[in-house]
Amino acid sequence: MYNYLAVIILVLLLCSACTPSHQEAGVSDTLRRQTVYPTQQVVEPAIVTEPVMFDTDDPAIWVNPADPSQSLIIGTDKDENGGLYAFDLQGKIIKEKTQSLKRPDNVDIEYGVNIGGRSYDIAVTTERLTHKLRIYSVPYMKPLDNGGIEVFTGETGDMFRDLMGIALYKNASGDIYAIVGRKNGPDGTYLWQYKLEDNGHGAVKATLVRKFGKYSGKKEIEAIAVDDKPGYVYYSDEGVGVRKYYADPAKGNEELALFGTSGFTQDHEGISIYQVSDSTGYILVSDQGANQFFVFSREGFEGNPHDHRLVKIIKVAAQESDGSDVTSVSLNDTFRNGLFVVMSTDKTFHYYRWEDIAGDDLNTAANKNQTTTAYGK
Q: Which of the listed residues 120, 221, 266, 278 has the most CB atoms within 10 Å of its CB?
């Protein structure tokens, strides 16, 4: 009996000595509880949209505040004869709301821009071949830009004016900004930020307020996303990781974080932010070459809001996804806990139910009894 107990104690001591604690291994108890190892199971979309003519690239969700079931998906068709498409929640193209454009790349949505004494929700897209921002009212998709707004003026470097990514930011005072990226640019000032406001003649004007953003020089920067509530901007430095800054230009240009630096098979692409509450949720980043998304904690870990650790990897049916968007608002019977929309290279966008993305591992806004008012952001 005593020999048997001695053997058990010896085994336990040896295991303790050979296996480092989670703290010693650099893994917190919180991370250990939340991390889910990836599987090969592919999450299938609830809906696949009708195809566009040429090449889907980036979607944005507009949530109808009066009737969420009448919300829209605005997506780009990236071609010199492409356009900005409007889709309903059944994936049907709304032809009368679709606009023809010269190679639109990325698109984003913001709510409550005051123009000519009226409040508009807007969709802003980058038109690469004209070097312009194009701005449309939502849901009617009427232009508010007097033919477009030129950006990166004065730049002469190779592809320094070829527009790509865009994200919109609305601060607590109601000021709205566009953070714009391009095909190529210098380290430290790759992104330019513009304030969008009334030009006094019923259209939008853009005023440059800052230049910022580190760049590795390896590939390019396209995917940009802003988290309005805490006021952060994230962007993918492709082949390197996701960089984080303050969205408010008054807070300076210090880089707050660089995460997602390992495990990606090819390019870091589309970034989407799912809100569980005003301060918690998830940051989803496309691993384009593997048809999967890395999910990071939105609120950080262990009291550090800039420590965004990996909590899950999700394989999706969409192919080589370049752009995505997500909302935690309950839209209809299909998307009760929110909608995750993903671009696919078969000229379509895929709509995923959040509960299919979350599985048993991630939270939803509904099961936390939260009501979001930051529609689509």
A: 221
Contact criterion met (CB below 8 Å) for 367 and 359: no
Cβ atoms of 176 and 110 within 8 Å: the answer is yes
Q: What tokens does 54 get?
A: 């040429």
The strand ranges marked E within 88-175 are 99-100, 104-115, 118-127, 132-138, 149-150, 163-170
Q: Are 263 and 294 in contact (CB under 8 A)?
A: yes
Side chain identity, residue 107: V
Residues 131, 118: Cα–Cα separation, whole Å: 28
Could you give the domains of the chain? 36-368 (2.120.10.30)
d(CA 86, CA 139): 9
CB atoms within 10 A of CB 42: 12
**DSSP category for residue 45:** P
If DSSP codes are grouped into helix, strand and coil, which group holds residue 304?
strand
Token pair, residue 254, equals 């210090």
Instruction: Render pLDDT for 176-234 as a digit per residue (tens, 0 to 9).
Output: 999 999 999 999 999 999 999 999 999 999 999 999 999 999 999 999 999 999 999 99
Residue 181, burial from CB neighbour count under 10 angstroms (0-12, 13-18, 19+): buried
